[in-house]
Design brief:
Strand order of the largest sheet: 1-6-7-5-4-3-2
Largest sheet: 7 strands, antiparallel
CATH class of one domain: Mainly Alpha
Oligomer: single chain
Helix content: 55-70%
Number of helices: 40
CATH superfamily of one domain: Transferase(Phosphotransferase) domain 1
Strand content: 5-15%
CATH topology of one domain: Transferase(Phosphotransferase), domain 1
Shape: globular
Length: 904
Amino acid sequence: MQGNQRQSLSPTRRRALDRLLTEYLKQPDDERNAFLGHCRRRWPRLAGWLDKLVAANQGVTLTLLDAPLQGVANHALDHMEIAEDEALSPGYRLGPWRILELAGHGGLGKVYRGERADGAFEKQVAIKLLRLRGAGLGNQLQRESRLLARLDHPAIARLVDAGLDEQAGPFLVMDWIEGQDLNEWVADMPSRKRCLDMVMALCQAVDHAHRRLIVHGDIKPGNVRIDSEGRVKLMDFGIARLLETTENPSDTITALTPTFAPPEQHRGEPLDARSDVWALGALLTWLLRGGPAGTIGDVELRAIIDKACNDEPGKRYASASDLLADLQRYREHRPLLAMPATAAYRLRKFIRRNPMLVGGSTATATALVAGLVTTAVWYVEATQKAEELARVVEFQERHLATIEVQDVGKAMRRDLFEQRREALAASDLSDDEIESALEELEAALAGVNFTNTALAMLDTGIFERAREAIDRRFADQPVLRASLLQTLATTMRRVGLINQAVEPQEDAVALLKETLGEDHPETLKYMQQAAVLAQARSDHETAQSYLGPVLEARRRLLGNEDSGTLHSAHALARNLQRLGRYEEAEALAREVLETRIRLERAGVRHLETQTIMVEYGRILLDLGRFAEARQYFYDAVEVFESELGPDHQNTLATMNSIGNLLGRMERFEEAARIHAEVLKRRQRRWGDDHPGTLVALNNLAGSMRDLENYEQAETYYLEALERTRLMFGEDHRNMAQLFNNLGRLYRKMDRLADSEHILRRSLELRRQSDGSGHRDTLNTKHNLAQTLFEKGRLAEAREMQAQAVAGIEQVLPSDHWLRGAFLGHYGRIYKAMGQYERAESRLLKAREIVVDSLGRSHSRALEATRLLAELYRQWAASEPDAGHDEIRATWLAKLEDAHTEEDR
């Protein structure tokens, strides 16, 4: 008999049973018995199991983390009737959980102590009932539950399950924490050290959540517990976000605690990571005062609190990890971010006062760099021979170029743990105690970016000293000094210290201009390097100021067909493209390509021709000339694959461009296959953390978004974000692009609060790295305006889109399709506001641009046509006798013709 039961519950039968249960739950109450009867006649074996499942439930209970029941969640919630005051009795079943006793009341509902009831394992839990209602709350609860299930930190009370019950309503199941709440804990008058320990542990927990794009939104004493071993636990992640779906907006402030809610929360504005920083600062104030009374006399602590709790979010600590870092500085008597001191000073103090971070293999890496910089300087000074000087400088540059700062950072982290393990092993601790201590160290360092720490060490500990030595020892030898400064600047750029490299780079160029002249080959080479550095900083105007004179000089001195001249022209064309000067870029790139092809026919063959083909194709892609771009890409990739191999970086970069082209052409499945193949090959060649691999991961995520596979796209984007953050730090410009893409995805997923939060972060980083007028910054404004529009905040959306349109008109040609897309959304906003004449002028122009650029059957053109038809329908309803119905009919006919053309 048991064998038969196992057979009847095979995976296939289990899936079938899940589908039947789902259908049963969808039925109206008066039709459920009839549905069961139908199942008994049609599927007698499955119906027996279905009867048991139905009979075992005291009402409808859906477990939202169970994928087969996803489709029922929102339907069930919308039809539930919940008794407002009736408590659940001990023994009541909520899916696999059983109520043991009522544990307390909160602003959002009752909290029960419960246990696992199905015998799968033994566990006591806290079951929190949520008295929330609103359209879409079921889907929102499911999304939040899946998101919160990713949180895994020792200071966060883990979400175990979530569900909907016909009688009890929506509920969350969390770890049961034995111990005290914070109100009880503070009554014992803890020391300042213990209060700081508490808040620092909370900062680590909150930072863990923020790095997974989760904001708590309700940090307060009631949501903090101290377990029986004295460890802090933060409760109720995600509750504040669920409040957004309630039918009564005033419930948000009622349910939250005003003392710990930041100003923007009182105003009903969106929350972000800085909102949690404000609440952490308020909690620190409360703790140090011993509760609601008392004063704080320490000037430095007062400065930390003032910065954390600033009314303007932009003036607070940018993250919980920044607040944690300043608290740590306070504990170690180091300069504070909150106190008047330059960032460079704070960084130097941090590095020079932490020699223990540099040990083992880290010290070896440090000695290597120091030897290749300072020792080379001393050697050159001693020999003074031109041929030996050339060899030393070449040796120095070649070996410094091999530095991998990520490896230095990893070595620092590894050595720190090894030293800690050795120190613990020398003590009387047991193996378990040693592992526990190492786990605590792991948690303490969760927010530390060792790549950034390694960069700081290289900058202040090595490169600054090298610069001082070069300036001091070779003050009267400008050419030699310039050579060494150029090597230093190139090395700093390659390891990621691009802002710090500007001064030695500019000094090297200035020295050669003064001593050798502006047209000397070495001067031109250094100017070209200065342009590369400016481009790395997204300062394309400065790059232009170097590249233009270099090309002019090389044409005059070497002729138009010299390889150096062609290289400079190619670089200038790429820079013009980045500046949005596409017509100039296209003309110059075409000239370079035609010259290369002509030379090849004369017997001079060079793979750089294919590289220029790819760059030219990318310019054509930006101009919307897809068919031409496609031919260049496919010709180039064929040569690269045959000459260089399938995994060569040129081959993969060109394949990546083909994937982007196919995406623009709306051939999404083909684009996804290309991007998946590029990712696989880059992972095989470079590993998961290489910048090229991360670009491929981002592109594959975009393809999944285009295919409406949103969950897979989110998984890829989040992985790319986490790896990029660890590689480059929180504020790198690559983070801005990923935030922008993820924000677009969340808008498509109707997660508008997430979309706005992430797009604002992207916009902040864009402004810092690229400036307000850069095309990428304007694109993020455009995306943010769309999200604000979807949230119904039309005035804000109009203002944001007005900025985006005004800016894009300055950087793109008048017929560029993206200008049409920006104008189209601008018109859409005016249509929603009932300002039909303003909407009409913008929508007509938008469609004209998009149709001319992409064709009338492209999805953007179809959308522009549909918006015009919808505009005239609304206008006709407002002014019935003004002839707008006839105009609408014309646009509907054009839309039908375009769809017919698309089908062909």
